[in-house]
Amino acid sequence: MEHGSALKFIMYSAHDSTLITLQAALDIYNGLLPPYAACQLFEFYQEYDGSYSVELHYRNESLSDPYPNPVPGCNGLNLCPLSTFTELARDVMPEEWEVECGFRTKWSSTGGGKSLS
Protein backbone atom coordinates (compact mmCIF):
# COMPACT_ATOMS: atom_id res chain seq x y z
CA MET A 1 0.00 0.00 0.00
CA GLU A 2 1.33 3.42 -0.86
CA HIS A 3 2.08 5.87 1.92
CA GLY A 4 -0.85 8.25 2.38
CA SER A 5 -3.28 5.97 0.55
CA ALA A 6 -6.93 6.16 1.57
CA LEU A 7 -7.22 2.39 1.05
CA LYS A 8 -8.17 0.74 4.35
CA PHE A 9 -9.34 -2.75 3.46
CA ILE A 10 -8.48 -5.48 0.94
CA MET A 11 -10.30 -8.81 0.84
CA TYR A 12 -9.52 -11.96 -1.13
CA SER A 13 -11.83 -14.95 -1.37
CA ALA A 14 -10.57 -18.53 -1.45
CA HIS A 15 -11.56 -22.16 -1.03
CA ASP A 16 -10.87 -24.17 2.11
CA SER A 17 -7.92 -25.94 0.44
CA THR A 18 -6.30 -22.58 -0.34
CA LEU A 19 -6.84 -21.44 3.26
CA ILE A 20 -5.22 -24.66 4.52
CA THR A 21 -2.24 -24.15 2.19
CA LEU A 22 -1.81 -20.54 3.33
CA GLN A 23 -1.97 -21.50 7.02
CA ALA A 24 0.38 -24.46 6.52
CA ALA A 25 2.90 -22.23 4.75
CA LEU A 26 2.81 -19.84 7.72
CA ASP A 27 2.98 -22.76 10.20
CA ILE A 28 -0.33 -21.79 11.84
CA TYR A 29 -2.56 -24.59 10.46
CA ASN A 30 -4.42 -26.41 13.26
CA GLY A 31 -4.98 -29.61 11.26
CA LEU A 32 -8.75 -29.18 11.03
CA LEU A 33 -10.76 -28.64 7.87
CA PRO A 34 -11.91 -25.00 7.82
CA PRO A 35 -15.69 -24.69 8.05
CA TYR A 36 -17.74 -22.78 5.49
CA ALA A 37 -17.00 -19.03 5.59
CA ALA A 38 -13.84 -19.40 7.69
CA CYS A 39 -11.28 -16.67 7.09
CA GLN A 40 -7.69 -15.78 7.85
CA LEU A 41 -7.27 -12.10 8.69
CA PHE A 42 -4.09 -10.04 8.34
CA GLU A 43 -4.12 -6.66 10.06
CA PHE A 44 -1.27 -4.26 9.31
CA TYR A 45 -0.27 -1.45 11.63
CA GLN A 46 2.13 1.44 11.27
CA GLU A 47 4.03 1.90 14.50
CA TYR A 48 5.00 5.26 16.04
CA ASP A 49 8.56 4.86 14.77
CA GLY A 50 7.31 4.42 11.18
CA SER A 51 7.89 0.65 11.05
CA TYR A 52 5.08 -1.80 10.29
CA SER A 53 3.67 -4.80 12.16
CA VAL A 54 1.23 -7.55 11.22
CA GLU A 55 -1.34 -9.30 13.39
CA LEU A 56 -3.06 -12.52 12.31
CA HIS A 57 -6.52 -13.69 13.35
CA TYR A 58 -8.55 -16.74 12.34
CA ARG A 59 -12.32 -16.85 12.23
CA ASN A 60 -13.76 -20.34 11.99
CA GLU A 61 -17.26 -19.81 13.34
CA SER A 62 -19.92 -17.13 13.24
CA LEU A 63 -20.75 -17.07 16.94
CA SER A 64 -17.49 -15.62 18.21
CA ASP A 65 -14.92 -13.03 17.25
CA PRO A 66 -11.82 -14.13 15.35
CA TYR A 67 -9.11 -15.43 17.61
CA PRO A 68 -5.43 -14.40 17.48
CA ASN A 69 -2.93 -16.47 15.48
CA PRO A 70 0.50 -15.71 16.94
CA VAL A 71 3.15 -16.28 14.26
CA PRO A 72 5.72 -18.93 15.20
CA GLY A 73 9.11 -17.21 15.34
CA CYS A 74 7.77 -13.88 16.63
CA ASN A 75 8.59 -14.73 20.25
CA GLY A 76 4.95 -15.39 21.13
CA LEU A 77 3.97 -11.85 20.23
CA ASN A 78 0.65 -11.50 18.44
CA LEU A 79 1.76 -8.23 16.84
CA CYS A 80 4.74 -9.32 14.74
CA PRO A 81 7.15 -6.82 13.18
CA LEU A 82 6.57 -6.94 9.42
CA SER A 83 10.30 -7.30 8.78
CA THR A 84 10.36 -10.41 11.01
CA PHE A 85 7.19 -11.82 9.41
CA THR A 86 8.63 -11.29 5.93
CA GLU A 87 11.85 -13.05 6.89
CA LEU A 88 9.93 -15.99 8.43
CA ALA A 89 7.81 -16.35 5.28
CA ARG A 90 10.73 -15.94 2.85
CA ASP A 91 11.05 -19.70 2.22
CA VAL A 92 7.47 -19.95 0.95
CA MET A 93 7.39 -16.67 -1.01
CA PRO A 94 8.24 -16.83 -4.71
CA GLU A 95 11.17 -14.73 -5.83
CA GLU A 96 9.84 -14.39 -9.38
CA TRP A 97 6.07 -14.69 -8.96
CA GLU A 98 5.09 -14.69 -12.63
CA VAL A 99 7.73 -17.28 -13.57
CA GLU A 100 7.31 -19.59 -10.56
CA CYS A 101 3.51 -19.53 -10.60
CA GLY A 102 3.29 -19.92 -14.37
CA PHE A 103 1.25 -16.76 -14.95
CA ARG A 104 1.76 -14.18 -17.63
CA THR A 105 0.17 -10.77 -17.39
CA LYS A 106 -1.25 -9.14 -20.48
CA TRP A 107 -3.09 -5.93 -21.15
CA SER A 108 -6.80 -6.26 -21.80
CA SER A 109 -7.92 -5.45 -25.35
CA THR A 110 -10.83 -3.51 -23.88
CA GLY A 111 -8.37 -0.86 -22.70
CA GLY A 112 -8.91 -1.40 -18.99
CA GLY A 113 -6.73 -3.45 -16.78
CA LYS A 114 -4.47 -6.43 -16.69
CA SER A 115 -5.56 -10.04 -16.74
CA LEU A 116 -3.80 -13.26 -15.87
CA SER A 117 -3.43 -16.00 -18.41
Automatic annotation (TrEMBL):
The UniProt entry's sequence similarity note says: Belongs to the histidine acid phosphatase family.
InterPro entries xref list: Acid_Pase_AS (IPR033379), His_Pase_clade-2 (IPR000560), His_PPase_superfam (IPR029033), Histidine_acid_phosphatase (IPR050645)
Q: Which SUPFAM superfamilies match?
A: Phosphoglycerate mutase-like
Its name, as the record gives it, is Prostatic acid phosphatase
- Organism in which the protein naturally occurs: Characodon lateralis
